[in-house]
């Protein structure tokens, strides 16, 4: 992926870096520092074909690396002040009088500083006069693996798990070690290594049967400054030890968890804590005992608290057994309806993990109104790097622009400027803990992510989580240069492909924010009515007159009332609602005219014809790179694009013919509709 370290051939750049790295000193007794040192050694050897000459004394070195405590006696006042202004994981890289300093507030900061320096080298930036002070915007920068012990990955599109195989934790942990390197290089600091759906055997991860091996994995991650979390089964006391209840207010249950947590920390002293999916999609939870989510989360929080452990409680809670035809049970309303009334009741070490949209990772959704709505409850936003609903790593869909749009959304919760980005950074409400989590997209495929270009989503997720002000284009450029080199043509063309891909995917799939229309179960390819008459609460309500979901206050489900003004007004009033989300919020006739001047039906036809053509354009761009691309990656992406074209064709034809038949309205340009 992006750590392949192609040799630098430009003599000038090579000389510059060799000069900076002439005599390097680094304090090296801690595992994180050792890993950081190792990273630098690998990168320098491969890119500069050069072995670092490690100096013993700071005085003799011309590049000084360490944390601020170790280097206290050698730093100038200005450097100390700079560091004091940065978060724990922050670092500086500076050149003063021909001498370079890379200093972290902590060892983790040193690690991030080294990765930053390596990135500069990959980008061939001039290293002779550096003045960098950097820190993460978000406290939690987390990855969730949805991996199962049998080796499968829920919503995994890149082969099997790198953690588990045939009911066992893998013996050879080389791939896990590499993954830790990748994650730390993009600033990730937390990982949960098992699926949020904790089925039978994974329940035992928190027992002696698995803890010794999980400890090995935790050690690997912790040497890269990444803390390990586990998803747990809320009914563990019953499953593991035959207790008669898992009621969170039961004394015996609480004692059980207390002992359990003590045992876990015996093995893994820096264990991060638990992720809990409770009372959701058939998973057990406090509702069984007439308790609420705060009761459930707080019980676990109390037992984790002495160890600085956290409870990450997911808000993907809705009734999946009940169709909705009345306003009270709109699935989009569910998270807010369940959790907002509980604000103020959660302990300080509980974080609520909230999906970016109110439904489920669709190509286009409004931002979840629960984000920011709880002023006294820590929150994490959850993205999905795995492309469950966005092409499953067969179709190209660079998701950074989508996430940037979400992060830039102004909730107005505390007046203008209350953006999601500031909320999850803990700057709007005073959250003790907050940040960003995401479902990973990696597996044991040779290229890690199924589609080679889907690596950009993992890379971009980390970079964005560290610094949400980076643009989609900047992130794409960094990734392309590190992955494919810096030839102008390659850069320009792949960048164009990535930046246009989300819109293209949206064009040929479900229109105007209505979502779904996917094949039930697998969620790839079109099936327009696949979920329409099922219980999952994901409808489009298309009939012969019109389409869309009425979520207004007056005639619909009232979902729009969950937003602050002016968003409530904008979404609630048909004439104000942005085109791209129109069918999420309103049911309209096919001939309703959009702000862009097209009717809804014509827009559906136009975008679907266009989306398919755009995929053909992507293929042409890629094909034009054959002469500059290695054969393996060229052929691989070419093959994926071909499959994407077939998928786009199916979507185009099914959507267009479905709406043509429903509405009876012909395409204004008389194109053939199958
Ligand atoms: C949905 C997935 C399902 C997950 C669920 C979740 O289809 O496999 O278990 O989300 O987030 O998107 O818990």
Structure write-up:
This protein is an alpha/beta fold and 674 residues long. It has 19 helices and 17 strands. It has helices at 11-20, 31-48, 77-84, 107-122, 174-185, 211-222, 236-241, 251-267, 293-304, 334-339, 400-408, 420-424, 455-466, 472-484, 488-508, 567-572, 582-585, 600-623, 631-663; strands at 24-26, 63-67, 91-96, 99-104, 131-134, 140-144, 164-165, 168-169, 190-192, 227-232, 273-276, 310-314, 350-355, 379-384, 435-439, 546-547, 588-589. The strands form four sheets. An eight-stranded parallel β-barrel has the order 6-9-10-11-12-13-14-15. It has a five-stranded mixed β-sheet with strand order 1-2-4-3-5, sandwiched between helices. The relative contact order is 0.08. The model has no long low-confidence stretch (mean pLDDT 96).
Produce the secondary structure layout:
Blueprint: H1 11-20, E1 24-26, H2 31-48, E2 63-67, H3 77-84, E3 91-96, E4 99-104, H4 107-122, E5 131-134, E6 140-144, E7 164-165, E8 168-169, H5 174-185, E9 190-192, H6 211-222, E10 227-232, H7 236-241, H8 251-267, E11 273-276, H9 293-304, E12 310-314, H10 334-339, E13 350-355, E14 379-384, H11 400-408, H12 420-424, E15 435-439, H13 455-466, H14 472-484, H15 488-508, E16 546-547, H16 567-572, H17 582-585, E17 588-589, H18 600-623, H19 631-663
Parallel strand pairs: 1-2, 2-4, 6-9, 6-15, 9-10, 10-11, 11-12, 12-13, 13-14, 14-15
Antiparallel strand pairs: 3-4, 3-5, 7-8, 16-17
Helix pairs in contact: 2-4, 8-9, 13-14, 14-15, 15-18, 18-19
The structure holds beta-D-glucopyranuronic acid (BDP).
């Amino acid at each position: 992926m992006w750590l392949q370290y192609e040799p630098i051939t430009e003599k000038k750049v090579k000389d510059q870096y060799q000069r900076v790295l002439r005599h390097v000193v680094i304090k090296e007794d801690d595992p994180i520092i050792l890993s950081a040192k190792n990273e630098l050694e690998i990168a320098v050897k491969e890119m500069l074909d050069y072995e670092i000459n490690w100096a013993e004394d700071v005085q003799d070195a011309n590049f000084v690396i360490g944390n601020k405590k170790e280097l206290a006696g050698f730093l100038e006042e200005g450097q100390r002040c700079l560091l004091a202004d940065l978060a724990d994981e922050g670092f500086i890289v500076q050149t003063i009088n021909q001498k370079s300093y890379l200093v972290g507030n902590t060892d983790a900061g040193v690690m991030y500083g080294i990765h930053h320096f390596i990135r500069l080298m990959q980008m061939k930036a001039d290293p002779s006069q550096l003045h960098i002070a950097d820190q993460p915007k978000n406290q939690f920068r987390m990855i969730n693996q949805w991996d199962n012990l049998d080796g499968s990955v829920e919503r995994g599109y890149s082969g099997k798990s790198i953690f588990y195989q045939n009911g066992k934790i893998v013996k050879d942990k080389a791939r896990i070690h590499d993954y830790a390197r990748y994650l730390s290089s993009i600033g990730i600091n937390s990982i949960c290594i098992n699926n949020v759906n904790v089925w039978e055997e994974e329940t035992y991860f928190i027992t002696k049967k698995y803890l010794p091996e999980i400890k090995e994995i935790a050690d690997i991650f912790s040497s890269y400054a990444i803390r390990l979390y586990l998803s747990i089964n809320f009914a563990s006391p019953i499953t593991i030890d035959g207790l008669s209840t898992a009621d969170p207010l039961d004394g015996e249950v609480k004692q059980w968890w207390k002992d359990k947590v003590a045992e876990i920390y015996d093995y893994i002293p820096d264990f991060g804590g638990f992720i809990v999916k409770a009372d959701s999609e058939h998973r057990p939870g406090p509702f069984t005992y007439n308790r609420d989510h705060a009761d459930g989360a707080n019980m676990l929080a109390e037992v984790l608290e002495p160890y600085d452990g956290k409870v990450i409680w997911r808000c993907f809670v809705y009734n999946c057994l009940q169709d909705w035809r009345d306003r009270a049970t709109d699935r989009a309303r569910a998270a807010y309806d369940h959790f907002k009334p509980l604000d103020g009741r959660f302990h300080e070490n509980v974080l609520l993990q909230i999906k970016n949209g109110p439904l489920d990772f669709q190509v286009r959704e409004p931002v979840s109104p629960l984000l920011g709505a709880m002023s006294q409850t820590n929150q994490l936003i959850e993205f999905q790097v795995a492309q469950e609903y966005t092409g499953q790593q067969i179709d190209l869909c660079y998701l950074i622009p989508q996430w940037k749009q979400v992060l830039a959304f102004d909730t107005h919760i505390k007046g203008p400027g209350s953006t999601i980005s500031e909320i999850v950074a803990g700057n709007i409400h005073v959250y003790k803990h907050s940040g960003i989590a995401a479902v990973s997209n990696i597996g044991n495929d040779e290229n890690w992510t199924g589609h080679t270009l889907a690596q950009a989503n993992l890379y971009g997720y980390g970079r964005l989580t560290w610094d949400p002000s980076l643009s989609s284009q900047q992130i794409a450029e960094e990734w392309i240069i590190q992955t494919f080199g810096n030839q102008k043509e390659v850069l320009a063309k792949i960048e164009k492909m990535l930046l246009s891909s989300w819109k293209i995917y949206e064009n040929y799939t479900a229109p105007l924010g209505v979502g779904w229309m996917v094949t039930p179960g697998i969620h790839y390819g079109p099936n327009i009515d696949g979920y329409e008459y099922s219980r999952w609460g994901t409808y489009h309500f298309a009939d012969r007159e019109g389409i869309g979901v009425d979520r207004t206050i007056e005639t619909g489900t009232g979902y729009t009332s969950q937003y602050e003004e002016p968003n409530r007004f904008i979404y609630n009033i048909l004439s104000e609602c942005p085109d791209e989300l129109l069918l999420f919020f309103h049911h309209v006739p096919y001939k309703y005219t959009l702000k862009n001047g097209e009717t809804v039906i014509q827009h559906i036809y136009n975008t679907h014809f266009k989306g398919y053509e755009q995929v053909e354009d992507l293929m042409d761009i890629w094909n034009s790179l054959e002469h500059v691309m290695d054969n393996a990656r060229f052929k691989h992406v070419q093959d994926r694009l071909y499959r994407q074209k077939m998928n786009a064709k199916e979507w185009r034809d099914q959507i267009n013919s479905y709406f043509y038949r429903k509405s009876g309205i012909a395409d204004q340009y008389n194109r053939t509709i199958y």
